[in-house]
Amino acid sequence: MTRAVALNLAMFTSYEESKERLMKAMPNNTGLAWFLAGWISGGLSATASLPFDNAKTKLQKQAPGPDGKLPYKNIFDAMAKEAKNNGVAGLWAGLPTYVVRIAPHVMMTLILTEKLKGLLIKK
């Protein structure tokens, strides 16, 4: 759930801000502004949510040690241990692959939402 919150918060805030600025910069090219805003939002959403996704994966794959204890208590414990063992940058391990996976989803979601708003909300 924490990963989803981070992803959605980054997705919607960065998209709206990017779209607003791009629409001012290129008022006659709405489609390109939406596309670029979606691309920016996709990259920022992936960057914001990856530490939580990596920690979630560690939690899902954890196995009890010889003493029977699990290595992680919760998502934040997993993140703290990852940062301690591999540095803070370790939280973003696999970022390029994650961006390639997440950014198109974000872009399609946001552009489709714009199209649907245009069809459903008449000005």
Which keywords apply here?
mainly alpha, 76% helix, 123 residues
Shape: elongated
- Average pLDDT reading: 92
Unreliable stretches (pLDDT < 50, length at least 5) are: none
Instruction: Bin the helical content.
Output: over 70%
Instruction: Tell me the count of domains.
Output: 1
Would you report the number of β strands? 0
Could you tell me the strand content as a percent range? under 5%
Please, could you describe this protein's structure?
The protein is mostly helical and 123 residues long. It has one domain. The protein is built from four helices and no strands. The chain has helices spanning 2-25, 30-61, 75-86, 95-120. The longest helix has 32 residues, at 30-61.
Short description:
With 123 residues, this protein is mostly helical. It contains four helices and no strands. The protein has one domain.
What secondary-structure arrangement, pairings included, does this model have?
Blueprint: H1 2-25, H2 30-61, H3 75-86, H4 95-120
